[in-house]
Amino acid sequence: MSDLTPQSETPTPTTDKITQAARETIYLCNFRVSVDGEWLCLRELNDISLTPDPEPVHEGNDPIAIERLNLMNMAKLSIKGLIESALNLGRTLDSDYAPLQQFFVVMEHCLKHGLKTKKTFLGQNKSFWGPLELVEKLTPEAGEITASVKDLPGLKTPLGRGRAWLRLALMQKKLSDYMKTIINRKDLLSEFYEPNALMMEEEGAVIAGLLVGLNVIDANLCMKGEDLDSQVGVIDFSMYLKDGGHSSKSVEGDGQITAILDQKNYVEELNRHLSASVNNLQAKVDALEKSNTKLTEELAVANNRIITLQEDVERVKEESSYQLESRKALRSDSAADGQALGETRKQLKEETLLRLDVEKELEVQIGMKQEMELSMKMLEKDVCEKQDALVELRQQLEDLRAINQHLDHLLQSADASSKQKSEVIVRMEEKINQMSGTIKQLETRCKQAEKERDLALEANRLFKQDFGDKIESLQVEVEQLRKQRTGVPSCGFLEWSFSSSLQKQCKNCSGVFCESCVSKELPLPSSILPETVCTACYSLLLQQYASSPT
Question: How many angstroms separate the CA atoms of 301 and 319, rounded?
Fold first, then answer.
């Protein structure tokens, strides 16, 4: 708080004024607002003194000028963001739309900047409702807004009336025109604002020019039930600060479903508005029917009155004729009846005046009857037009209901397809889990087979290592035996000739013998199955197998 107190011991009125303004808008003085493309940048100012220097203060170090610049930049960003978001949204804005609420908060701060404090019996008061009331005097069109604001129930403070005025002017699309009107009359604004206030400087004209862009958006703001008197007007800077992790492209996961839901909400809202319009028109038709019935009854009463007056006129005519006849009879009488004749004349004059009055009343009643008939025809025509409009509105309502049903059907089909896809995904995940289990089992079996293969190769290697030398020595002996044999086919043990059909060959020494000499079988190193060998080879192989270790 030491930075917020004046340095001098005897504060001057100018010092108090600057200190109070700095305390009220300290959130704007401690930061300088600048625009970086489409983003808001806040830079903290550490060396701002709240007490005026005796020397002239430059524009760059004036906290009031910084406040004006910050508010102008905030207004630029708020108006730009509101227009872009409204165009992207593509529908009428309501009171709950966050950018619209922030726009009104920024406008409140702009209108409050540099307001003069008015002392009342309840204390000091600062309200921008006074400058807004000037618009009614400068522009007669704004009188409707001012009257509507004053007639709104629930508004008890000037702040609430000022907020309601801003909302109604935005809905009328005349906010920029009204702001330009009051900004051009600085002689009137000087009664409410300080000379260095935003509305008195060039920044106010810039903001008024920026407000022209808001004429492209449509707003439907319901102020009944809104507590405009006690709302807290705080600017939400988080909507404009740059986010480092901000991505310019959003994920298009459920874009079609979102669009369908938006269309459905719009159709439902339009359906509610049309239903309300139909109900209002139905109420008007009922009121017109009641007034028509009442006028018909009044017309019947007037007709009866006219008939009664006509009967009175006929009766007066008969009485007048009778009196004339009686007067003629009295004239034929003596002059003694002069007094009675005078009375008769007097009665005749009275009856004549009464007749004239009755005729005038009859003419008035006839004119009223004609006017009532004309009004009845106009009412019947109006009722017919309203009925035609009601039929068209009902047809539109049926069309909207059909569109709503179609959208519901599309939404249900989209939900069903999404459910089917989710079920397919679940089944595929189950199959994937099963396949992963099968793959693990096959990998286990493959590892076991590789281990068995390695063991078999090792056993084969050991077998070859053990029996390789013996096989080579046996092959050498076989070669020697083959060399010793002659080419004549004869039995080695029985020296008698035999035919070629009875010749048998020894598989070990390849000698030719008779069938009786080659009747033994032994497994040879060169073959797995037992082969036929001669008697000599059989004895030799038995000795070798017996002498070799198992």
Answer: 27
